[in-house]
């Protein structure tokens, strides 16, 4: 980014130009101006005041361009961060532990800052993946919970054996969003693999997978099914798209 240059023919006060450049530079974490400091966002109005002081001078055109670009970048970060329970982008770095809000809406955003746009894309992808995971997990958990209720003795419905449960792909090396799970993971329950609470009634898992495929959550057998917890005798699973 070019610094504002002055000459003897300009009408701007040199100190006003310096003040603008100094505050403008303070918004960025580095001299390459690829990442913004979140703590500076509320000072944008101060920068606008300094910009207005340059009105009518040769420096104003370049300063206005820099201000407009900065304002666009700040708004983009704020819009994306507002979709998470806590800021996902802080000082140009994506917090992969940030959780998307239940009513979050993600749309692609471009600012013209290539490096920032990459981080924005990653944040949006993170949020969308959590929404997919949460929706799939909700479907799986609700169905598993329902079918795990004790059945009347007169019912001829039987549970499938554990050997018939297709757990899908291995989660090894896959960054699944376990932090987004609506039911807390319980390793001791997961290790109790022979517990009948993990059994699905006939056809239930197939129905869950079919519904998830129809909604676009998973494709074919490209899914990861993980045991999560046993609560009140009911087995809970999470279904993830790898």
From TrEMBL:
InterPro entries: MapZ_C2, MapZ_EC1. Residues 127-171 are annotated as: Disordered. Residues 129-158 have a biased composition (Low complexity). Residues 4-125 form the MapZ extracellular domain. Signal peptide: none annotated. Residues 182-241 form the MapZ extracellular C-terminal domain. This is Mid-cell-anchored protein MapZ. It comes from Streptococcus pneumoniae. The lineage of its organism: Bacteria, Bacillati, Bacillota, Bacilli, Lactobacillales.
């Amino acid at each position: 980014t070019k610094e504002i240059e002055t000459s003897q023919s300009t009408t701007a006060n040199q100190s006003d130009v310096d003040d603008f450049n100094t505050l403008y530079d303070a918004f960025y974490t580095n001299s390459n101006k690829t990442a913004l400091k979140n703590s500076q966002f509320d000072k944008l109005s101060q920068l606008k005041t300094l910009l207005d002081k340059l009105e009518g001078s040769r420096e104003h055109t370049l300063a206005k361009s820099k201000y407009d670009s900065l304002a666009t970048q700040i708004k983009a970060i704020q819009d994306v961060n507002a979709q998470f329970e806590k800021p996902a982008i802080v000082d140009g770095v994506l917090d992969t532990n940030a959780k998307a809000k239940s009513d979050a809406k993600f749309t692609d955003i471009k600012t013209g800052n290539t490096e920032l746009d990459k981080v924005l894309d990653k944040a949006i992808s993170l949020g969308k993946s959590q929404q997919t995971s949460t929706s799939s997990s909700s479907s799986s958990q609700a169905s598993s919970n329902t079918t795990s209720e004790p059945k009347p003795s007169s019912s001829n419905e039987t549970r499938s054996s554990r050997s018939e449960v297709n757990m899908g792909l291995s989660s090894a090396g896959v960054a699944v969003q376990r932090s987004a799970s609506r039911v807390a993971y319980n390793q001791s329950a997961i290790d109790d693999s022979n517990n009948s609470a993990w059994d699905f009634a006939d056809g239930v898992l197939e129905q869950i997978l079919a519904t998830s495929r129809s909604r676009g959550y998973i494709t074919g057998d490209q899914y990861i099914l993980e045991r999560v917890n046993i609560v009140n005798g009911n087995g809970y699973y999470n279904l993830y798209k790898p």
